[in-house]
Specification:
Strands 1, 2, 3, 4, 5, 6, 7 and 8 form an 8-stranded mixed β-sheet that branches. The chain is α+β, with helices and mostly antiparallel strands.
Length: 150
């Protein structure tokens, strides 16, 4: 069984792909993490959407790649990083981030990437080359930390 990775601009997404992306984001961020927040923030329209599907074509991991100026004035960004709960602890998150960084560099050039990572994942992001740029802060009732990869 092998996973497939695709990356599409919002305009290229099928309605089924968009539905599955929203379903996964709600399943993890809203339901699992018990965090009511406005997921439809208007940033999806100008973003690229990296999807990892399993061999049965189920969406199991996803990230949103934002060009410079969408989330941060001077940085491109990777956000909405999510893996399906049933496939965690298998290295998929690391694969997702490696693919996301690689794709961001391809799409946006070799420019610094800024993220707003959940604070409990600080070590995970540090191991991928991100450096904290400030103190923890609350975002959607969850501690986060701003991190940059140059």
């Amino acid at each position: 069984m092998s996973n497939t990775t695709t990356c599409k601009h919002f305009k290229e997404l099928s309605t089924t792909e968009l539905y599955n992306i929203i379903k996964l984001r709600i399943e993890v961020f809203s339901v699992e993490q018990n965090c009511p927040y406005q997921d439809a923030d208007g940033k999806d329209f100008d973003s690229w959407h990296l999807m990892i599907h399993d061999s049965n074509h189920n969406l199991i991991a996803y990230s949103r790649l934002l060009p410079k100026g969408i989330a941060y004035p001077d940085y491109c960004s990777i956000g909405r990083v999510v893996t399906l709960q049933s496939v965690r602890k298998q290295g998929l998150g690391k694969l997702l981030m490696h693919k996301s960084i690689e794709q961001a560099n391809t799409l946006f050039g070799n420019t610094p990437i800024k993220i707003s990572g959940q604070a409990y994942l600080r070590k995970f992001y540090t191991e991928l080359g991100f450096v904290a740029t400030g103190d923890e802060y609350m975002e959607d009732f969850i501690p986060h930390i701003a991190m940059v990869k140059k």
